[in-house]
Amino acid sequence: MSVFKHPKSLFYQIDFRLNGHNIRGSSTKSKQEAESIERDWRAKAVTEADERKRTGSGQMTLSIPAGRYMTEVCRGRHPKPISIDPLNALSASLAAQH
User: Fold this and answer.
1) Is 0.85 topped by the overall pTM?
2) How far, CA to CA in Å, does 66 sit from each of 54, 56, 58, 69, 71?
3) Strand partners, 95
4) Side-chain half-sphere CA neighbours of 21 within 13 A
5) Which residue, among 4, 2, 66, 87, has the nearest Cα to 95 in the 3D structure?
6) End-to-end CA distance of the chain
7) pLDDT tens digits, residue range 4-20?
8) pLDDT attached to residue 76
């Protein structure tokens, strides 16, 4: 159960996990009230998770901002393809020097 009381505490603790997120907090001295608070917190957390999923405002991975940067900032910077021939020539001349 996610509602429990530490031996040295007067208050019940609430601790549960939802979609990889820990939700914790201290509640009241009554176990019934703490269980009611836990149900409310859980319902609110589910609603907020659904809203984040619906609006796309959740956590981002690196690929999302990197992709946005490439399409929004770098678009049109190099109108013609970049040739790697100068790099190959440089590499060959450096290798010949050693």
Assistant:
1) no
2) 22, 16, 16, 5, 9
3) none
4) 11
5) 87
6) 70
7) 998 999 999 999 998 87
8) 60
Residues paired with residue 21 on neighbouring β-strands, in sequence order: 18
Sign of CA dihedral 10, 31, 7, 43: negative
Tally of CB atoms within 10 A around 12: 22
Q: Which helix (H) or strand (E) holds 3?
A: strand 3-5
The residue among 60, 64, 2 whose CA lies nearest residue 36 is 2
The pLDDT assigned to 36 comes to 93
pLDDT tens for 34-82 read 999 999 999 999 998 888 887 777 666 777 777 777 777 776 665 555 5
The set of residues, in sequence order, having a beta carbon less than 8 Å from that of 22 and lying 6+ positions away, is 15, 16
Strands, DSSP E only, in 10-55? 12-18, 21-26
